[in-house]
Specification:
The complex is a heterodimer of chains A (about 140) and B (about 170). Chain A has about 140 residues and is α+β, with helices and mostly antiparallel strands. Chain A has 2 domains: about 5-65, Alpha-Beta Plaits, CATH 3.30.70; about 75-135. In chain A, about 55% of the residues lie in helices and about 15% in strands. Chain A has 5 helices and 3 strands; from the N terminus they run βαββαααα. Chain A has a 3-stranded antiparallel sheet with strand order 1-3-2, covered by helices on one side. In chain A, a hairpin with a 3-residue loop joins strand 2 (about 30-35) and strand 3 (about 40-45). Chain B is mainly β. Chain B has 2 domains: about 1-30, no CATH class; about 35-170, Jelly Rolls (Sandwich). In chain B, the strands form 3 sheets. In chain B, strands 3, 4, 7, 8, 9 and 12 form a 6-stranded antiparallel sheet that branches. In chain B, strands 1-14-5-11 form a 4-stranded antiparallel sheet, with no helix packed on it. In chain B, strands 2-13-6-10 form a 4-stranded antiparallel sheet, with no helix packed on it. The two termini of chain B are about 15 Å apart. The model of chain B has no long low-confidence stretch (mean pLDDT about 90). Classes of the chains: A alpha+beta (about 140), B mainly beta (about 170). At the A-B interface, strand 2, strand 3, helix 3 and helix 5 of A face strand 2 and strand 3 of B.
């Protein structure tokens, strides 16, 4: 059984807001957390010391107290990023691109079209990277 | 009144009020056996990143009932989403897992990491062995198989179409 550190939930909206700090502060000892409407429960592995418990408590309190409720939580920030990338990709019209390619008659036009395509590829890569970081190993 | 072993009448026995009342009490118990029900409607949803089974909410999703030697049926209804690769659920009966190992059910979820895509049904039922007469405690536990955040929608209405309300019940049978 893990050691539980029970705290008032405070301003925490999502575990992602505090987990990076807890993992960094307690490497190899922090084992995850749960939230209920009123509580945050931090799990430390067996063998963790009183100092570890205090550090978990202090880290949580420090991070949560610094949360600005006006800033969207991490999941909302990811959703907005994803939406932005998708909207850029969705502006791509295949017929339009094909017409541009067919109409290329000089280097300048070719550069413009290639730049536009490169932008789409970059947006797709950014989107894939966002998905990969969220999904874990499939 | 608890259920009691009925008196076995033999030819010539006089019917007494006590015996008939015991039959009546048994019928009453069979209609309303020991039962606990928790309906969840929270201001925020539940989450965990724990990779070992932990209580979803020891304060709320806990049922304690007094039983009289019978089996107990348990039920849980809910919807879950994960930023990782799913979630595992189990019932905890007097501190011990009902299913053992990774629990009773493993649920796959689809995610874009924002808790806004497809939720998965994480409902389950379980029938215990006959439990000794007395007080027994039942809980619902969960874990994240890969450390991703799993979220149980709990009536907070924090996303469109996700204002769903889990229910947990236990009933002696």
């Amino acid at each position: 059984m893990a050691i539980e550190v029970r705290l008032q939930r405070g301003n925490l909206r999502e575990p992602e807001e505090v987990e990076p700090a807890l993992r960094a502060a307690l490497p190899g000892k922090y084992a995850g957390m749960s939230t209920t409407p009123s509580e945050a429960i931090l799990y430390l592995i067996d063998g963790s010391t009183g100092d570890d418990t205090q550090l978990a408590h202090d880290t949580y309190t420090q991070v949560v107290n610094a949360i600005d409720p006006k800033v969207p939580p991490p999941s909302e920030q990811k959703r907005l990023k994803r939406l932005t990338h998708l909207q850029t990709i969705q502006t791509l019209d295949f017929a339009d691109i094909k017409a541009q390619i067919d109409g290329i008659s000089n280097i300048s036009q070719a550069k413009t079209t290639l730049t536009r395509l490169a932008r789409v590829v970059w947006e797709m890569l950014a989107l894939m990277d966002l998905n990969q970081s969220d999904m874990g190993d499939e | 009144m608890p259920y009691v072993t009925p008196y076995t009448f033999v030819a010539g026995d006089p019917l007494t009020a006590a015996q008939l009342n015991a039959v009546q009490a048994n019928i009453s118990y069979l209609k309303s056996p020991s039962t606990g029900v928790v309906n969840v409607n929270n201001a925020s949803d539940y989450t965990t990143t724990s990779t070992t089974l932990v209580d979803i909410d020891a304060a709320t999703l806990t049922i304690t009932i007094t039983t009289y030697g019978g089996r107990v049926q348990l039920g849980f209804t809910g919807s879950v989403l994960s930023t990782g690769n799913g979630a595992n659920f189990d019932f905890i009966i007097d501190g011990a897992q009902a299913g053992g190992n990774d629990g009773l059910i493993s649920v796959g979820t689809a995610t874009d990491g924002t808790y806004t895509v497809r939720s998965a049904n994480c409902s389950m039922t379980f029938t215990t062995a006959a439990l000794s007469a007395g007080s027994h405690q039942f809980k619902v536990a969960w874990k994240s198989p890969d450390g991703g955040t799993i979220k149980l929608w709990a009536g907070a209405g924090s996303a469109s179409g996700k204002d769903t309300h889990p229910q947990f019940w236990a009933r002696e049978v």
